[in-house]
Each structure stands twice: as structure tokens, then as C-alpha cells.
Write a structure and sequence with these properties.
alpha+beta; 2 domains; four-stranded antiparallel β-sheet; 1 helix; 4 strands; elongated
Length: 94
């Protein structure tokens, strides 16, 4: 019977300690939270081009752009800074 009481006390202390650790971790993460930065920037596309589609990934925006002569490009933009990361030319195979 004495062993059972000891086991219950130890498990209770472990439960309270675990709960305190959980609260400390949550409070620590909330104190380090920073809201996402917003930016105001223009994305230049050629005159007469139109955006056919958009897709987002991890901090990336991909624009499917149809150029006036009929060719297509994929513009890759970093969402955290607003800078253009690259252009992918899409060509049809003859």
C-alpha cells in the first residue's frame, strides 16, 4: 500500500511538472511571435502581358504570365521581400 501511495505522489508531481513545462514552452513561443511583414512593391510585367494564373508556396509566389507574342513565362517572387527571384521561359516543343 505504501508503494502505491509513493507511486501516486511521484506521478502527480510528474503531471504538474509536465503541465508547467508545456505552459512555459507555449508562453516562450508566443513571446517570440512576430507578425508577418508586409511590403508594398510593384511587380513589373511587360506591356500587353496578362497574368493567366497564380500559385503560392513556402514564401514564394509564382505568376503564369502570357506575353503579347503568345509565349509564356513563370515569374517567381519572394513573398517576404517582394523581390523577383527568377523567370522561367516556357516553350512548346515543335
Amino acid at each position: 500500500m505504501r508503494a502505491l501511495k509513493t507511486l501516486v505522489v511521484v506521478m502527480g508531481i510528474m503531471l504538474i511538472g509536465g503541465f508547467a513545462a508545456l505552459v512555459a514552452v507555449i508562453a516562450g513561443r508566443l513571446s517570440h511571435y512576430s507578425p508577418p511583414r508586409s511590403f508594398a512593391t510593384a511587380i513589373d510585367i511587360p506591356r500587353g502581358a496578362r497574368i493567366e494564373g497564380m500559385a503560392t508556396g513556402a514564401d514564394r509566389l509564382v505568376l503564369d504570365v502570357v506575353l503579347p507574342e503568345g509565349s509564356r513565362q513563370l515569374l517567381v517572387i519572394d513573398l517576404t521581400t517582394g523581390t523577383r527571384l527568377g523567370i522561367v521561359e516556357l516553350r512548346t516543343i515543335p
